[in-house]
Amino acid sequence: MATATAPVTAAPALAHRVAERLPHRDGNAWTVAPYAAWWTTRPAARLTQAGRPGALILAEHPWRTEIAWQLDDREPYEPDLILDRIAPGPVVRETLRLVLPRMDDVAALAYADRPADARRARLRHLNLIGSAVRAHGPATVNRTGSHPNSDLVEWSSQGVRYAVTLIGANPACDLSVSGPVADVEQVLPLFLPERAAETSRFPLRDVRTRLGRRVAAHLVQYTPVDQLDDGELTFGAATGPFGYVCPPADPAARIRDTTPVVAELHGVGVDHLVHLAARLAS
What we know:
alpha+beta; 2 domains; 5-stranded antiparallel beta sheet; 27% strand
């Protein structure tokens, strides 16, 4: 691994606050060490977690934060994510949404052609999620998924059902959320960008179902929304979790807060789900 040559100063305080908020794995917290990032002379830090391949590189600027991910054969020469935020909460949120899933995805290539190792990794990741959920009350069920080489963990809480599926060696989760539309609407933004200061225009009159119009009006505050020919409502972008809302059985039916709806999210990180376990279990 290449190393930077700039002088190393003390790790920025933000790095310690971020490390404190990132979820543990197998009881291991994230640790922080000063680091000289290739792309900047600003104070930077390297965040690592015992038993986990890779590291996060965080550089702090007066009005922004830069984050990159590092593996043995990948030294970042520029940040993978630039945020105009310097508070630990938003930095942790976007690291869990956008950075760690990408690092884990590349790290998983090491066992992608070994089915037995891939399944062990799947079950370990699902157990991390299940343990975090059970710590807050709900019982979880593990079973084989409907797709080849897939496994899932599922649970229910307050009338909402969750199912997390992992397929093959891919460590990015598929998350199914089903329940009353008012509750599902509160869950989906947890995985999307922060609410925009100005909501983009979306022609709700073009959405053919009442359920679609309601959900679209809510989600467009966070992310782009579109409707497919079959009536599914898609949301999200390729840079982070994305998904769709299934069309209702009766497109013209009146919509209430208790109307059932099913949403599917893709590209969700294991650590993100562990981090949100308390919210998804309540």
